């Protein structure tokens, strides 16, 4: 994949889950990788080992432990990118920022969703896709034919208890990705969402009561297993191929058919 | 429609367009009407005449010229409602708050959409539906079988230039209405969105370049005219009937078939 | 509802389930009722009692025990209708023809779906909607403002084991109803599908293994019960009101929110 | 792509348009190619030249000028395939059978759609996908991990004048592909539909009045050109990669964003 070596993939939220798996796969495809992530020193031990694997693909690598949602950090990230990229460009932007508030709308015992919960989740999971697209665009960092990929879930059209803020944010994210596909088309930018099935990640396991969701998802999946981060990363890779250049504005399920039932 | 006279319909944004038409129709159906609106003294002349028409239906009427999005105003509105309602309840909440920022994502000449444009639009057009539902719920103002109706448009799934912030907000609004339908079902609350066609209102006429949109919409509509506010108010009325009580969580086009093409 | 008494509702498949419930409700709304059904003498005892209830609404009533899918029977039905209607017209056509083949695509033990199973089901459940629309149209039996209503289910977009032929037919039915909405719009015809939830009917109870489906549907329904035929008939009634005349080409869930999860 | 050389791709309707382009691309990917087509001797001159290009990819090639919808021909095709494949398997089935009746539902001058038009179109464009899946399955010709790809269009959800029969068939095709995805999942079969944009093919140019459709499609496409067969073939290729194995039961637009507006 020598032809990719002048291009970069920027992964927002790339130190775990779908983002990390995408980074690994795109490195194997020959892309230089920049990961923006937010982790404590304690977490970095394990993550560094993962980053070493990425570097072993013999590509240029940059990780920035900075908040992708903060104005000052964003300037810093852009500045670091400009230094590092020199004359190369960003061909791939992967948005894997998950920061949602899980609360019920009605509860006798616990606090319920506030207006702010909706706004914070919407900003982090949806508007940030536009912010970053705009930031790279204004700074002329996009390649001539570039691909933006964001992650959504069935929750954008199916309400689940406790997920109202995430549901609204994901619905907004899909709408924003369609607007980006439309308005940035003249500049060679393609933008798609991948609707991942219930994915076997650490964050899933940490949700209270996730055992039931996991069991139920396996049962309902025609292929009888959870989605793995690698399944999704595989399709990220496909969407970055030359052959995918006529696909834009789509929401593409990658779930082994889980959404069918 | 004597049976409705112990129930109120609360219309957020009821001094023009879909909100006003809904208020008129629901008054004819026998509901007492409370309209929350935000208008200057100059505008009130014309609006007062409309309010007089509503009162002529021989129902109780209350209009509150207050900002439905402001925390203090909201307290004031709730307090006024409690005074006025006495032992009666709110059976219908109509959300007709339109406050969106129309800007492009890309422009050489004009300012483009900011992160804040998205957030302000989302809060006004989407989150406020939840806020008001929560407010009436906490204050025990909902009737046992109540109906929440919000207005969306094809723009939630179809991007249009300059409409990205509204598109994301409408997509979020639909998601929130589904979550309300799910989580408030145990309390007898039904929540639906009406997807109105391009509607012949003053605000439409004031959009720069709306002539083309109007001409195009008439042509594409199988019934060869624009949607009128009364068409939509008619379906608001139907959704408040006893016969509609098994409908919830839906997005219902009311557009003479405009969405078909 | 005196204003309806010069109009007829023609119910195809009106001796049980959604069709019968619709006939009852529309009779209460003042429509004259013609039911086309196919029943044995043994079944007619019970059904006649139901028909008597309809007649008690003091409307004109006609039942024709003839096959709505057979060419000769169709001529006979049209001829009988012309005699009976005199100068009145058909304002409502309700399509409630259910005749599907339930087989798996893959089975070690039983016969699997054949090409013919798909065709027979498609003709009975989908194409017949067009055939009857065309038949009434050619014979100038439709009123100036008329409503066509057909019944679909989530199965049109969600595959279920054993339901592939019905799923394809329902998807086709929805497409046909959209084409009717578009092409017959100039003649005042509105056409909508109601997507009923899992409905508590005798035919449901007769499906092998339906206990699980029933239990599961109750659990998943935010309103914690099955859909009843009357819930659906209620919305048929609403769609025949003057207020619904701007709704066409839609698929409208009537399921207490069951489709949400 | 040496790893593909033990696998075959069977293309139904592979002598022109999307089918032929897919065959060419899959041959470049290293698949052996079998094309089933139906052409006159006069047409074969030009087509043979295309087939020679495919053979130049240095793969095994078989073309069968036989009717893929006829029972006897189908037996003959299966028999020829078995001879040719020996111990190799079919990994890819591409369904590109287009045979639809284009007529209006209402016309003063011309004949309108008949019941048979719907049935013939449904059988050719939709049920044949199931028939061929079943035929290859029963004859144990599918590889362990195989991909079925069918072509649909926006017409499945958007009615167009004269396209009612095709619209119903495409909606049925999508439903059948979902059922195949579900029921054949245990046997390693993945099934997806590609929703191609308005594609620049000879058959498009032959439709009366297609100039307007072409002009309109270019204008509405964010990428300002028609879809080309190669755009679609590119995504067929991606869906046959190992990386796509977790995608099934989807309808995937490949249209440069045309469906967005």
UniProtKB/TrEMBL annotation, chains A, B, C, D:
Coiled coil, from the record: none
Keywords, comma-separated and alphabetical: Oxidoreductase
Lineage: superkingdom: Bacteria
Keyword Magnesium appears in the UniProt entry: no
InterPro entries listed in its UniProt record: NAD(P)-bd_dom_sf, SDR_DHRS6-like, SDR_fam
GO terms of molecular function: oxidoreductase activity
Family: Belongs to the short-chain dehydrogenases/reductases (SDR) family.
Official protein name in the record: Enoyl-[acyl-carrier protein] reductase I
Record organism: Halpernia frigidisoli
